[in-house]
Design a protein that fits this description.
The protein is of the alpha/beta class. Residues about 50-55 and about 75-115 have low confidence and may be disordered. The chain folds into 3 domains: about 30-70, no CATH class; about 120-335, P-loop containing nucleotide triphosphate hydrolases (Rossmann fold, 3-Layer(aba) Sandwich), CATH 3.40.50.300; about 340-505, P-loop containing nucleotide triphosphate hydrolases (Rossmann fold, 3-Layer(aba) Sandwich), CATH 3.40.50.300. The protein contains 18 helices and 13 strands. α17 (about 475-485) crosses α18. α16 links the parallel β12 and β13. This is DEAD/DEAH-box helicase domain-containing protein. It comes from Eruca vesicaria subsp. sativa (Garden rocket). Pfam families: DEAD.
Length: about 500
């Protein structure tokens, strides 16, 4: 297709999208209905023309010239105020779908939407009609609804399933992006949108790029264009296609995108949503620096979502460098490894109590978090308090189960919060990033409960455990080694040996 024809087609698609949004506006009516309403109002207010009245009424002695025809003194009804503002995201009440309780949009009465948004639903329906082998309807996806909430709350997202993105997840991402584009076009009719693509989807391979683009293709009837950039195609051809098409979505491998950006073939500074898929594979292939360069080139206030397809602790710094401090965790799995993703676990085995206390002191000094939470036995509080004050930390002690765990906010120095291991409440530890266990846990279930309850809104969680060689923890060794291996953490040799000896016994 020639450049001029493609520009006309693009303009027509944009006009069709605006027309579709106007059709969804409840305040818009056809010209015929508007004329009927206007005529009815004229009849009710007595503003018909004189000849119109003479055709249907005769003069009377009281009104020989029909001057008072239709002008009946009736009390005027109070008109209700109607909000006529255009809302492209109006709710489709005819579709009985799960309600969306949007964070940040609720009012004091906990107002909820009656169903998913019309335009979002139309996008999901277009994708469903293109793929006939789906196990369940896309709108029933809990993951998708939570991602939609996160996107509109402005938070970054990390998917901790440990796999590549699925068709269901891709569908919700591109549909949410399409809905956002439609809303922006309505709100900025007088101000043209940026020439940058709205969605940038980074993938490690050509095959993954093809999968993502196949989902995006279903949205082409709605005026959304997507291109795939990867090695194997001519660079000049891809650059000319980008300049003529100006796509809303770009699916690309990092190295090819950097080539095109360096040649000024595309401007990515205005990207609004950055998706990094299969981060573990990208790191293993040596593309982490390229991904970081691409993220730095995006100057707008964008949102990021990372799919980490590996639980290896070696990739945690990469996730931390790509996401902000406050994030939302999403997953298609409820396994321990998924819930504990991006949490660094260290198990310190010491020769004696003195060595354990020394190691505990070293960890305190190296902790970067201002708030350090110590879950220990109550009888150890006095010894720990003396050490913490010696280190210059402010100490707060939870004396009973009614004490609330309050995230530390200090202007100077660090704060240490002592929590009784027999009374801690895991539901209050979501915002905690650094946890120390100077007295090893009484059971494996307690360890898992602490591990899966901390750092729920962060990718910077750390859990340090301390135990002496004299303590009999052989009953916990096997289970603990399995958790460390599943989570991609380092397993100490003495723990591995202890696990092997307990199994042989």
């Amino acid at each position: 297709m020639a450049k001029g024809d493609d520009a006309l087609a693009r303009k027509k698609n944009k006009a069709n999208r605006k027309k579709m949004n106007r059709k969804n506006d409840s305040s818009a009516v056809s010209s015929r209905i508007a004329a009927i309403i206007a005529a009815k109002k004229r009849r009710q207010t007595g503003k018909r023309s004189m000849c119109q009245g003479m055709c249907f009424s005769l003069p009377t002695p009281e009104d020989p010239f029909n001057e008072k025809l239709g002008k009946v003194n009736t009390p005027k009804k109070k008109k209700k105020k109607v909000n006529k503002s255009r809302d492209a995201l109006s709710v489709n009440k005819s579709l009985k779908k799960p309600s969306l309780d949007v964070e940040g949009v609720e009012n004091k009465n906990k107002k909820k939407f009656d169903g998913p948004l019309k335009f979002l639903m139309s996008c999901l329906n277009e994708i469903e009609s293109s793929f006939h082998h789906l196990d369940k309807p896309l709108f029933t996806s809990t993951w998708g609804i939570e991602f939609w909430k996160s996107f509109h709350s402005g938070k970054d997202v990390v998917d901790t399933t440990g796999t590549s993105s699925t068709l269901e997840q891709i569908a919700w991402i591109v549909s949410t992006a399409t809905e956002a584009i439609s809303k922006s076009e309505l709100e900025e009719e007088d101000n043209p949108l940026s020439n940058s693509p709205f969605l940038l989807y980074l993938v490690p391979s050509h095959s993954k790029a093809s999968q993502v683009r196949s989902v995006c293709k279903a949205l082409k009837p709605l005026g959304v264009h997507a291109v795939s950039l990867h090695n194997g195609a001519e660079l000049d051809h891809q650059i000319s296609g980008l300049k003529s098409l100006e796509p809303e979505f770009i699916v690309s491998t990092p190295e090819r995108l950097l080539e095109i950006v360096s040649l000024k073939g595309v401007d990515i500074s205005g990207v609004s949503l950055l998706v990094i898929d299969e981060l573990g594979s990208l790191c293993a292939s040596g593309y982490l620096d390229a991904v970081k360069s691409i993220k730095q080139a995006i100057s707008s206030n964008h949102r990021s979502i990372v799919f980490n397809d590996s639980f290896s602790a070696s990739y945690i710094p990469a996730v931390q460098s790509l996401l902000g401090r406050s994030i939302n965790r999403l997953s298609l799995s409820d396994s321990v490894a998924s819930q504990a993703s991006c949490i660094i676990q260290t198990v310190n085995v010491c020769a004696s109590e003195e060595k354990k206390l020394q190691k505990f002191s070293e960890v305190l000094d190296s902790a970067s978090s201002r708030g350090i939470y110590i879950v220990a036995k109550k009888e150890s509080f006095r010894k720990l308090t003396a050490l913490l004050k010696l280190k210059g930390l402010s100490v707060i002690i939870a004396n009973n189960s009614d004490s609330k765990i309050i995230p530390a906010v200090t202007k100077r120095g660090k704060l240490a919060y002592l929590i009784d291991i027999e009374q801690f409440d895991s539901t209050e530890m979501k915002a905690i990033e650094t946890v120390l266990l100077p007295d090893f846990v009484p059971s494996f279930e307690t360890y898992v409960e602490i591990l899966t309850s901390i750092a729920g809104e962060s990718v910077r969680g750390t859990l340090h455990s301390f135990v002496t060689e004299k303590e009999d923890v052989s009953c916990l060794a096997g289970s603990l080694v399995n958790v460390l291996e599943d989570c991609g953490q380092n397993v100490p040799d003495n723990w591995r040996n202890l696990s092997a000896s307990s199994m042989s016994d």
